[in-house]
Write a structure and sequence with these properties.
It is a single chain. The chain has helices at about 105-115, 135-145, 160-170, 185-190, 200-205, 245-250, 250-255, 285-305; strands at about 1-5, 5-15, 20-25, 35-40, 55-60, 65-75, 80, 85, 90-95, 120-125, 150, 175, 215-220, 225-230. It is α/β, with parallel strands linked by helices and about 300 residues long. The protein has 3 domains: about 1-75, Beta Barrel (OB fold (Dihydrolipoamide Acetyltransferase, E2P)), CATH 2.40.50; about 80-230, P-loop containing nucleotide triphosphate hydrolases (Rossmann fold); about 245-305, no CATH class. The strands form 3 sheets. Strands 11-10-9-12-14-13 form a 6-stranded mixed β-sheet, sandwiched between helices. A hairpin with a 4-residue loop joins β7 (about 80) and β8 (about 85). The N and C termini lie far apart (about 60 Å). The structure holds guanosine-5'-diphosphate, magnesium ion (MG) and zinc ion (ZN). Magnesium ion binds near residues 184 and 185.
Length: about 300
Amino acid sequence: MKTNSKHLGLVTKKFNDFFLVDFKNQENSGNSEKFLCKVRKSINFKNQLIYVGDEVVIENIDLKSRRAVITNLEKRKNLLVRPSVANISNIYITFSVEEPELNLSQVNRFLISAESMGVEVSLVLTKCDLISDKKRTFLLDKFGKWGYQAITLNLEKSDFFNNLLAELKQKECSIFMGPSGVGKTTLLNMIIPGLKNSTAPVSNKIKRGKNTTRNVELFSISNQSYIVDTPGFNMQPLEVDIRLLPNLYSEIYKQVIDEEIKCKFRNCLHLNDEGCNLNKSFERYSFYKEMIESSKSHYYQNQED
Ligand SMILES: Nc1nc2c(ncn2[C@@H]2O[C@H](COP(=O)(O)OP(=O)(O)O)[C@@H](O)[C@H]2O)c(=O)[nH]1
Ligand SMILES: [Mg+2]
Ligand SMILES: [Zn+2]
């Protein structure tokens, strides 16, 4: 029962030489629709690897045994490293408000690193059952000034979670990123019932040396909407090119675009530059300055190459 037609597919899992591929642009694409594929031998896609999240063309489709062959790799929009996932549309930076306590500088680094991917970035604050409503309002206000309408989750109140779930079902491919212990696995287990990834109290995580060796996998949560499961990964923010930094802070690019502020030099880094007209009285300015200064030596080294 083989067909000669070609079909666009989405790689949802990868192991050794095999790939699990979903039909793209198909109603009811769910886990039962997956095809087990290998790459056609004569093809090496200009030595590019195929990652989870990649769009591929599949042929020799056998509907009965659910086997097919990958014959082409489509151009990818982006590629996340560690874990390697292609074509992410949404990054949800996830932090707990307590246990572990919020570290604003770390939240900022994760946000800016995600922004540098050029995808939609959101902020999720977990464990809001551990703080007062007053504190929650304070945090919403703070992150609002950073340019983010934070999603605050409280395990005892499901309405916020339900809103988040509805939102995820409108997105193409979302991933939760953040430090260890903030509740990412707990959240994934709620979004994908039956997943049963193991969660662990914060204190046990530090001791736990063994890693779950399961691979990165995309789970379908609605028609053509996926969520990335990244078992065993604790994601760290990436290094960002400092020339991009001014464009990644809403407090800065809003001044440049909306208020049309002009600095003397077009590539002004808004530090102590001569003729800088940026209004620097916003909370994240010190984090911005820190990020520039910590990568500056690296930047100038590269300029000399
Ligand atoms: N109080 C409270 N604890 C939570 C919440 N979400 C997760 N936890 C706990 O936080 C710990 C770490 O959660 P886990 O999902 O493993 O975090 P991960 O490292 O980000 O995957 C576990 O003991 C969870 O039970 C929450 O909303 N409120
Ligand atoms: Mg986890
Ligand atoms: Zn400037």
